[in-house]
Write a structure and sequence with these properties.
Elements: E1 4-11, H1 28-40, E2 47-48, E3 57-65, H2 76-83, E4 88-96, E5 106-116, E6 128-129, H3 136-144, E7 148-151, E8 166-177, E9 180-187, H4 194-206, H5 212-221, E10 236-243
Parallel strand pairs: 3-10, 5-6
Antiparallel strand pairs: 1-3, 1-4, 2-3, 5-9, 5-10, 7-8, 8-9
Length: about 250
């Protein structure tokens, strides 16, 4: 019997309360587990690399589950995509082993956030629209502050239930493409609402309401009430998750 199945999924998070299962609201996890229940005819719990917030998207979310039995002649990818809503897609599947865990085996996660300084109708659920010119150079300097290991208490939700709030950031930088400002951040772990809080506060620097030094003081204060601002969710996408061992995707 197959010991563990791994799924690469992508989703548009606009219509969902987030990845994590909710009792009274639609969630990514809930939709996947409902589809698996229809296939295997029993409840199956899935585990993800991380829990994205309500309205946040994923290009490369990894989940795993342990099937209760082997279904003959099953094309798992095709079967799930038939059962899942159109805004959740299985991109690849792989066979793993009991040592693999979608969350705990991950060594790096990569997120992207997009700000648009122009009006857009088609991308309204993919970007944060800020209708003013931003000081891009100051935002670039702000991003540099987060590289390395820091306590990110100032930039996480008070609801975050974790043993500690130290994260190691490998890359943190802004790119500009026309009217789009794109923030990319790579780290070993992220706290609840952390990336959105980093972006929202850097946007305050871009607007001239805070200085780079103010941002540094907020980081070093390790105090959520010190002035961090949380950006809206729709501009954020989980782009990639890297593991110690290569996943051999079946396609």
């Amino acid at each position: 019997m197959i010991t563990r199945m791994i799924l690469h999924i992508e989703y548009d998070g606009t219509a969902y309360s987030g990845y994590q299962l909710q009792t009274d609201q639609p969630s990514i996890q809930g939709e996947i587990e409902n589809a698996l229940k229809k296939l295997y005819r029993e409840a199956i719990r899935v585990h993800a690399s991380g829990r994205t917030d309500a309205g946040v998207h994923a290009k490369y979310q990894i989940v795993h589950f342990d099937p209760p039995c082997t279904l003959q002649n099953l094309n798992l990818k095709a079967a799930l995509n038939t059962l899942l809503p159109k805004d959740i897609r299985v991109i690849n599947t792989a066979i793993g082993n009991k040592d693999f865990h979608a969350r705990f085996s991950a060594r790096e996660r990569q997120y992207q956030y997009i700000i648009s300084t122009q009006n857009t109708a088609l991308d309204r659920d993919r970007v944060w629209q800020i209708y003013q010119e931003l000081d891009f150079d100051s935002m670039k300097k702000s991003a540099d502050l987060f590289i390395g290991e820091h306590d990110f208490t100032s930039f996480c939700s008070v609801q975050a239930e974790v043993d500690h709030k130290r994260c190691t950031i490998f890359k943190s930088y802004w790119e500009q493409h026309g009217d789009r400002l794109i923030y990319r951040i790579h780290g070993n772990r992220f706290l609840h609402s952390m990336v959105r809080s980093l972006v929202g506060t850097m946007a305050e620097v871009g607007k001239g309401r805070l200085t780079v030094e103010d941002l540094k003081n907020i980081l070093e204060s390790e105090d959520r009430s010190s002035g961090a601002i949380t950006a809206p969710p729709q501009g954020l996408t989980l782009m990639y998750v890297q593991y110690e061992e290569k996943i051999n995707w079946e396609g």
